[in-house]
Design goal:
Blueprint (H helix, E strand, L loop, with lengths): L5 H7 L7 H17 L4 H41 L2
Helix pairs in contact: 1-3, 2-3
């Protein structure tokens, strides 16, 4: 059976996806563990894959926030034109 890609795993875990702060904390923990060099190669690979998934999640959250902020700005401009 083929292994799932990080993107597929992220999509499958969407309901369990961490918020931005939790994802960043987990990412920092993974980086710290890997930098200490006390992790096996297999565990390092798993941590790297998880880290990629967390980065993707954080980017998605930030992009969504940016879109929402831009929309609020557009809404404010459109509301100002009506007066």
């Amino acid at each position: 059976m083929a292994r799932k890609s990080a993107e597929q795993q992220a999509a499958n875990n969407a309901d369990e996806a961490p918020n931005f702060e939790a994802a960043m904390r987990e990412l920092e923990t993974l980086v710290d563990r890997m930098e200490q060099g006390q992790v096996s190669l297999e565990d390092s690979l798993k941590a790297f894959e998880r880290g990629r998934s967390l980065v993707t999640r954080c980017r998605s959250i930030l992009e969504d926030a940016e879109r929402r902020i831009e929309q609020m700005g557009l809404d404010a401009l459109q509301g100002g034109d009506r007066n």
